[in-house]
Amino acid sequence: MMDPAALRRLLDRMGVPTIVSDGVRVYPASQRSADVQTALRRRIEQLGVELRLGCAVRRLWIDAGQLMGAEVSAGQRIAAGRVVLACGGKSWPKLGGTGGGYALARQAGLEITELLPALVPLVSQQRWPGLLAGVSLQQARVWIDLPGQDRAGLTGDVLLTHRGLSGPAVLDISGRVSELLRRGPVPLRIELVAGMGPAQWVQQLEGCRNLAGHRKLANFLQEYLPRSLCAMLCELAGVKEQTALAQLAAAERDSLARMLGGLELTVTATEGFEVAFVTRGGVKLQGVNPNTLQSRSLSGVYLAGEMLDLDG
Fold first, then answer.
1. Are 273 and 279 in contact (CB under 8 A)?
2. Contact of 246 with 209, CB cutoff 8 Å
3. Pairing verdict, β 57-63 and 66-72
4. Percentage of the chain lying above the pLDDT 90 cut
C-alpha cells in the first residue's frame, strides 16, 4: 500500500517534484498535469506494460465465482488475475466521467451508495447574485441554516455567479448541501466578513456614527465590501446608501446589520455533475479492505479514486 508521502517520493524519483502550496493539495512543482502523465507513461514503458487505448471494458470476466480478467469492447477477453477499477466518478463528463465503473463494481458484488455532485457551485432561489456575477468576498463565513447543522460553517472566499454561489467556502460545503437538497431547498447564511455578526456590525456603525455622523453609509460599507455589493445590500435592506450615518434610523441600522452578519440565500439546486469537481457517494468503504483496496466480495478486484464513497 502506497501512502501519500510514498507517492510523492515516487513522483520525485520519476522527475516530477511536487509542492503543497495551500497546506492540503499536492501539485507538480511545474504546475503542469501533463508532466505527471508523461512520467507515468515513461514508467510503464520501462516496466514493459502493454497500454491499450480505445478499448472499453464492458464486463468483468468471472467464472465460477473467480475473477478471470475482463471482457472488452471488441468482444475479446483479457486474462488477468487482478483488475484495478479506477474509472472515476460521474463528475466532469467532458473529461470522461461517465460513471461506467460502478456497473463493474456491482458485478463484483459491491454496494454503491447514492451518487451526488460535490465541490460544485450552487443555484440560489434569489436572482440578485446574477446581477453581481464575478463579485467575490474574501474570508466570509458560510453555514447551513438548518437544525442539526454545524453553525460554525466554513470560512473562505465566496464568489457570486450568474446562478448563485461558488468559491472555495461554498464548494467545500456543497457536498452536504447536495444531500440536504433531496428534502427540499436549503437555506444558507453568509457572514460577509468572518467574525462580524449583527452585533459587531451595529457596534461598528454606531462607533462611526459617533465619530463622523456626516459620513455616508455607502462610504462606510465600502471599507469592508465591494461597491456593487454594498449598493445591492442597501437596496435589499430598504436603506438609501447615501444616507448620512447620523440620519440612519435604528430599525434601518438593525436590518442592515442582520443582513451583513448573516445574509440569507436559499439554495434550490447545484449546477450538477457537469461542473462538479468530485462525486459524493460510490462504493461502500465497508466492502473494501482499507490496507490493500481489494474488494472483500471478489478476490483480485481492487478499487481506487472517485469510485469509492470518499469525496475527492
1. yes
2. yes
3. antiparallel
4. 85
**Locus of grid cell 468482444:** 75
pLDDT, position 1: 65
| DSSP string for the chain | ---HHHHHHHHHHTT--EE-SSSS--EETT--HHHHHHHHHHHHHHTT-----S--EEEEEEETTEEEEEEETTS-EEE-S-EEE----SS-GGGT---THHHHHHHTT--BPPPEEES--EEES-SHHHHTTT-EEEEEEEEE-STTS-TT-EEEEEEE-SSEEESHHHHHHHHHHHHHGGGS-EEEEEESSTT--HHHHHHHHHHHHHH-TTSBHHHHHTTTS-HHHHHHHHHHHT--TT-BGGG--HHHHHHHHHHHHHEEEEEEEE--TTT-SEEE--B-GGGB-TTT-BBSSSTTEEE-GGGBSS--
Task: Pick 122 or 96 by higher pLDDT.
Answer: 122
Q: Quick one: average pLDDT of 293-299?
A: 96
Residue (of 134, 141, 171, 143) closest to 156 by Cα position: 141
pLDDT (0 to 100) of residue 17:
96
What is each CA distance from 60 to 30, 83, 183, 237, in whole angstroms?
Answer: 38, 8, 36, 60
What is the C-alpha separation between 70 and 75, in angstroms, rounded? Answer: 10
Distance of CA 206 to the CA centre of its chain: 38
Q: What pLDDT sits at residue 198? A: 95
